[in-house]
Design a protein that fits this description.
Structural class: alpha+beta
Shape: globular
Distance between the termini: 70 Å
Radius of gyration: 29 Å
Helix content: 25-40%
Strand content: 15-25%
Number of strands: 18
Largest sheet: 15 strands, mixed
């Protein structure tokens, strides 16, 4: 009997695999793939603030603004005045501020001019006696939607701290955001409307309809991952990306506190030959989080994951890029608060051109970073049992020669010889650390000296093994701590 052959061409197999992957991503993230978008990468606060203010001034119908921190400073007041001007011109302005994020940054009275101009302002999750522990959930999103023209999201708050302070020699913070145009605007506006509805009356239908009436404008496919408490959509997506990456997975995170399942996923990828890199702040605006993050370096390094610390004032970006094909930008940090507890907003972009731009920016960032490496201490060579003692030049036993020399030497000579040997050993140990390219490939036993910032990581293979980190900073971050 002849068994009929099924038509299983490589093309059909590849299409089937792609459809299966798309289904897995959609189910994990709880977000469908949206086609026909254009996405611009915006680096650091100045580029973002200028683009945000330009979009606000150009708005003709609706502005949706949601951010974790609005600070009462020159930057915050510039945005308030721009929103007031648009509200007086008849543009409907809806703004959400987080109570915890704005604590100590600005009060609700800061927005009285906007309210008087016709804008609406709501505060997310202020403390309530009926829910004493409810304040743990925060609205950590950073979103601005103007009409149906453009939407911005990323990790940047409305605060002058992101711009640095030249007078105090504080460099601008390193952060990343994107500008999105196209059909994905519908999901951005819907994400805002969902939070707005939990704080009072729903967003007017006509306001939401204007923001969601968007036509295709580009070729990029993306997903809008709008996380709310207890959904963990981005956590599942991050796990899936770590499992599916084949060539590279480069991650930047401001407050990395890796949980065991995610660390194991990254470690498994690294052991499979994937180039896994993690870039984190060298100096954090929240020192306690920085200490916890550093405490988790050991399993990452032992698995072959390359860990880098940023040399600037503060690294606040939350991004990832995998295999030169997939990239993520948004507000979510790699910790349980963002994955499970907060309202977060990210975009996962499936576009090779955009992913290559993200990889290029990552390479630039590593030029101002220090790599963490494991360093094995030098061990003294022990003489094996039964090994012959070294011979002197005349063939006599070297130990006998030393004994003869010691017997004829006085105490002062012996002390001088000991001091000379100690000085020679100290000079050898004080040799400068190996320097190389901006981020050389470090292997066990090496130490780096990059950008005048020396770092030694020593691995002690004892029962009380610890990861010892010693840093000499070119300058410390002297800015006032922000929330996030």
């Amino acid at each position: 009997m002849v068994v009929p052959q099924t038509d299983r061409s490589p093309t059909r197999d590849s299409v089937a695999v792609r459809l299966l992957a798309e289904q897995a991503f959609s189910r994990a993230a709880g977000a469908p793939l949206i086609e026909g978008n254009a996405v611009d990468l915006l680096i650091d606060a100045r580029a973002n603030f200028d683009a945000w203010l330009a979009a606000i001034h150009a708005a003709r119908s609706t502005i949706l603004f949601e951010n974790y921190i609005f600070r009462d400073d020159e930057t915050g007041r510039a945005f308030r005045e721009a929103l007031c001007e648009r509200a007086k011109a008849g543009v409907r302005v809806f703004l959400i501020r987080d109570w915890m994020g704005c604590l100590g940054q600005s009060r609700h009275a800061f927005w009285q001019p906007l309210i008087a101009a016709g804008g609406e302002v709501r505060t997310y999750n202020p403390p309530r006696f009926t829910s004493p522990f409810g304040w743990f959930s925060r609205d950590h999103r950073k979103l601005l939607v103007c009409d149906n023209e453009v939407g911005f999201l990323g990790g940047i708050c409305v605060s002058g701290a992101w711009l640095g302070d030249a007078k105090k020699d504080i460099a601008p913070w390193r952060d990343t955001a994107v500008a999105v145009r196209g059909p994905a605007m519908r999901d951005l506006a819907t994400a805002f409307a969902d939070i707005w509805a939990t704080l009072g009356d729903a967003l007017p239908d006509d306001a939401l309809a204007i923001a969601t009436n968007c036509l295709p404008v580009g070729q990029m496919d993306l997903r809008v991952v709008a996380t709310v408490p207890n959904t963990a959509g981005l956590y599942r997506l991050d796990q899936l990306i770590a499992a599916m990456a084949r060539r590279s997975l480069w991650i930047t995170d401001a407050y990395f506190v890796g949980v065991a399942p995610y660390v194991q996923a990254l470690s498994a990828a690294a052991r499979d030959g994937v180039d896994v890199r993690l870039l984190v702040p060298g100096t954090s605006d929240i020192p306690a989080v920085g200490a916890v993050s550093r405490a988790g370096y050991r399993p990452l390094l032992e698995a072959g994951i390359r860990v880098f610390e940023w040399n600037g004032s503060m690294l606040h970006a939350k991004t990832a890029v995998a295999d030169g094909r997939w990239a993520r930008v948004g507000s979510s940090n790699l910790n349980l608060a963002s994955w499970i507890g907060n309202c977060e907003l990210d975009v996962a972009i499936e576009d090779e051109n955009f992913a290559r731009r993200m990889e290029g920016q990552y390479e630039i960032d590593l030029g101002n970073a220090t790599e963490i490496v494991l360093k094995m201490p030098r061990r003294r060579r022990r003489k094996n049992i039964g090994e012959a003692a070294p011979q002197s030049r005349d063939g006599s036993d070297a130990s006998e020669a030393r004994n003869a020399q010691a017997s004829g030497a006085n105490t002062g000579d012996a002390s001088e010889d000991a001091a000379q040997r100690a000085a020679a050993a100290a000079a050898q140990d004080a040799q400068p650390a190996r320097a190389g390219p901006p981020y050389p490939r470090a292997r066990g036993g090496s130490s780096l000296n990059i950008n005048s910032r020396e770092l030694h990581v020593t691995f002690r293979p004892h029962a009380d093994a610890r990861l010892l980190v010693k840093r000499e900073r070119a300058h410390d971050f002297r800015g006032r701590a922000e929330h996030e």
